[in-house]
Amino acid sequence: MIVQQPRRLDATAVPPVPQGMAPEPSPLALVHGQREGQWWWTLLRKVSYGIGDDGRMHRAVRQEPIHTRQAPHDPLPDWLGADAGRKGSMKTVAEARAFQSGTDVVVRGHAASAEPVTDMVAGVAVAGHTHKLRVWGARRSVLQGSLVHFTPPEPFQRVPLRSELAYGGFDPVALKAALDEMARRLGPLAWRRGAAFLKDIFPATVPIAYARNPVGMGYVADPVPQALHDVALPRIELARDLLTPERFAQGQPLAWLSRPVPAGLDFMDTRMFPRTAMLGLPPPGLPAGSPACAEVDWGQVPPDFSRGNLMSADEAQLQDVLHPDAGRCAPIGLRLPGLSGREVVSLIGLRADMPRWDFALPAERPAFEVPGQGVLPSALWQVFIDADARRAELLWAASWAGGRELAPGEDRALLPKVGTRVEVLA
Fold it and tell me: Which residue from 261, 266, 350 is spatially nearest to 300, judged by alpha carbons?
């Protein structure tokens, strides 16, 4: 008898959606959602633009579709977690959602300098809000006696601003200790049966992995001496919440709320806190109720962001556990109050040839003519900027009380009947 070797869960291909059931890629979408017992229908429209060096946006020939699923970036060659075979940060996330308060700003690009530097500032400013990142050359921790220090940063000219290079990841020393303990408890036979599965899921399990960013670098779950030496440190950090040798070498595994908030410009996916808690899957170590945390203190998530646990909620409570803002996918620091669509955006340190790049949003928005609803003005839910590609995508939305769920195929029947006109913003 031939026995096949076990396969990793994330190496198994997802079966394709049957033909005719998958939505066609489109810049227009209709979705529904339930809030406080009421069904709402939301129409979304994505508009794509090119960005000129003159600070103006122009409609792109190719209009990008609204993404309906997560898809990862290609792995970075210096990603610390690559040895575990985990997927990295997400290049696309599911963008269609029924509810949102405010505007998400997401920026993709590199910190770039015309000359070699050992550290620099990069970020974005819009509508009086500044999101500032500190970018470092490669550094490592050094344990000498009972004290930790960081090596001087090495020179660089270009660093990708992705979650893999922000604070987080998993602790390989804690991972080994957890697997050794499981092997001891299970015994030889059960361990052989379950080892592949446990080795697959443990690197992404809190507190072995950092709840806020399981794909980053520099995280130590339990500051035992063997975990503190020769650790690759984050290349990008929030200027307001830096990792210091003291913070690096202290804390308890489940006390991760006191650790640094990871720096980010690109999408926050559903594996990352606080989105996990907003989706009804609070990570271990998160106090019940409305815990105090930096994300709430900074006004980036509402105080009631964690409403319970889907695993223990009654069926009647499931909709109440999901937070209406769970679909927001901007990193912490770029979840802004509603933008109008005519603001000036400043990208800082993202172009070697232009240390500060200013451009204006296009000052136009779609208005939807919906059968039975009249003309509905739209709100700006998301601004995505690809600094390297010199392009932007604006996601607009309009909602109304639908009174019921959308029937299967009803969205595809209604969308061709929706009229769209452009309103110029004064």
Answer: 261
In whole angstroms, give the CA distance from residue 213 to residue 256.
11
pLDDT digits (tens, 9 = 90+) for 39-89: 999 999 999 999 999 999 999 999 999 999 999 998 886 544 444 334 689
pTM value is 0.91
Alpha helices in 279-402 (DSSP H): 294-297, 318-321
Give me the mean pLDDT over the 188-196 stretch. 92
Q: Where are the beta strands (DSSP E) in 93-165?
A: 103-108, 110-117, 119-126, 129-136, 141-144, 147-150, 156-160
Is 101 in contact with 277 (CB distance < 8 Å)? no
Query: How far is residue 44's CA from residue 415's CA, in Å, rounded to a whole number?
Result: 10
Cβ neighbours around 271 below 10 Å, total:
21
- Exposed e or buried b for every residue in 109-144, given b needs 16+ CB within 10 A? bbbbbeeebebbebbbbbeeeebbbbbbbbbebebe
Residues in contact with 219: Cβ distance below 8 Å, sequence separation at least 6, in sequence order = 167, 168, 169, 170, 171, 209, 210, 213, 259
